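The protein record minuted underneath.
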Amino acid sequence: MTGNLLILVADEFARSCLGCAGHPVIQSPHLDALAARGTRFTRAYCNSPICVPARAVIQTGRYVHQSGHWDSAHPYRGKPEGWAHALRHRDVDAVSVGKLHFGSSRDDNGFSPEILPLHVADGVGWMPALLRDPLPDFPAARELAAEVGPGETEYHRYDRDVRDAACSWLDHRGRENPRPWALFVSFASPHYPLVAPHRFFDLYRDRELGEPIPSGGQDATHPVLRKLIGFFDYDRHFTAERRRLARASYFALISFVDELIGDVLSALGDSGFADDTTVLFLSDHGEMLGDLGIWTKQVMYEGSVGIPLILAGPGTPGGHVSHTPVSLIDIYPTTFDAVLGEVPETELPGQSLISLAGAADDHDRVVFSEYHDGGSPTGMFMVRKGHWKLVHYAGARPQLFNLDTDRDELRDLADDPGTASTLAEMERTLCGICDPAEVNARAFADQAALIAEYGGEQALRRRSDLSFNYTPVPAA
């Protein structure tokens, strides 16, 4: 049986920052209502904690090391073909509205049309992603603390335009068109700058917002984290007051995008398609928000790699919470299951979220993430299995966390003699997915080739775009 699919994406949305996830402050009534009529996955992850590679995973259903979209300078350019291409080949209308963060609309990315697309800057991306040995300076890090509080940004205007365009598309689709459809609606918020519209900022202005989780010194003791956090040195630019403003703004941006999503869901209801449309809400990655002394993403802690994921619609249990680990690779098969009622035979690693939502919790399902982008002197690989999380750093010592007893990831057990067998088992699990040394070498080789294509390392270090901190939106 065929149906329709509405995918709603918010950028940089931390998994814990939903009212339905138990957050004590955040107001997210529309997403809470979506979760109440569907299934919320409590252990959802991105497969790379950075925008461009994560969005390539969403599109292709492949891990980063399988597709070669290593970093913010290797954006998706329509190859390998993704789920939008595959649905289109099966007479399904695949349409996008909003942020894609691919190379450009000159490529056939699978969507037809792309409405208000936001792609990487200048069709090229973020050049510091390629400069990892030695790391360059990143002066734009100071901008994060400088741009916080109530106000208006180009992202707010853009997100409202995305909302309006998505609602208009649903309004004009028409029931007389028999072709099933998949509509991908993607907002920029709550991605920084951490400036929020006044009406939403006022919801949090006088609230007790809590404090970031203290670092516990891991940033200073682990050699890779020391370099990465030294590059993205956001936290040292904050005062206590600006830290509070930033947290209030981030919470407000979540309420802002929640309202926009509510408007799109209302338009879906008015269109007459609601009963035969699967709705999927997710983010590309999380946001650390000062926890452990870290802002934005780029690390393998839960705040960065954890994402919200809610599924609702035909065949999905309502009012359900699933503790099965899932990740962005599961989007590709889900699109087929939702629209065509079948999952094609492929070698892709994901499973349909519809089938996972309807099954008993599989706590031992493995999820995997990797990072080869700016600020990292070596490849980082994460495996979660059961309550254990391994973070493998190519050429450096690992980290091991028990997420049942150490939710905040403050106690690294990798050197504990009592966990030696667990560490070895987790390393074997990782090697069953990829050879981290080989993948790390291949990522650096591909990045070196692109550096040469752009005129060499010194030419890149002279480029003005070394400093930009977030992708500008298309002109109004």
Notes: The radius of gyration is 21 Å. The CA atoms of residues 73 and 127 lie 6 Å apart. The chain has a mean pLDDT of 95. The first strand starts at residue 4 and ends at 10.
